[in-house]
Amino acid sequence: MFFSIKESYESALKRRQRERADAAKMEKEMQKKEHEEEKQREREKRASEARGGSTSSLRRSSAVATPGRLANATPKFMPKKRGRIGL
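and the corresponding structure tokens:
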């Protein structure tokens, strides 16, 4: 037979307070980490601007391959001729 032992009011209250304190502590740590990451991004951005704006070279070197035909290439699919009826 299964049974559960109920917590007393004081122990349940302490547990809830401890959980709330842990949640607040974790939230504070997350905000601190996000703030540090934002500072790091700002430093990297300033450093890249000081180097001479290497972002333009990144845009130039990264080409995106897309499907479709090129301007001087043969079409991949030829359109069907609709003139014939039957065999």
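(Above: one complete record from the training split.) The chain has two helices and no strands.
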